[in-house]
Amino acid sequence: MGSRNPTMLLAGLLFGLFARAATAEVAYPSTDLKKTFNPVNNVEATLKLDGSTLTISVKGDVHAETTTINFETLNELHVQIDDFNFDGMKDFAVWQIDDGMGTYTIHRIFVYQSETGSFKELAPACGDGFANLRVESEKRVLLSTYWEMNEPKLCMTSFSTR
Questions:
Q1: Is the pTM higher than 0.70?
Q2: Is residue 97 one of the residues assigned to a domain?
Q3: pLDDT for the residue numbered 22
Q4: What CATH number corresponds to the domain at position 104?
Q5: Coarse DSSP helix, strand, coil percentages of the chain, rounded to the nearest 5 percent
């Protein structure tokens, strides 16, 4: 039996992996979830997560609305219900681990708007999104990470006291 070149073995293995990845279909995680909560009295919100699609149904005394949001991700989506803008009404976030190295979380936050009876996506005070979100309820602030010239920075999205 002759000796095998480890470099050639590794190259063959990597080629096989890349060839398989190039022909594989993109599959979303099979996360099927249904959560119902009350953002305020007499209003019921139902979140139905089917793979990468979220359907939001809001039913109140005088208003009913259904909205669908598609998320572009390969990783599993998670739903978190909380009061993200500290106004006493329940909101929700959909979060995932980043699709790259899997080193940080990405949150999209949706806050309840009592005037319209619907949810509106919240934007951070800086950066493009809520990465590595921390909710500081006592200080009424959302802390997240954003990058400036490839340097991580702390973003503080604060809400005034009512």
A1: yes
A2: yes
A3: 35
A4: 2.40.128
A5: 10, 45, 40
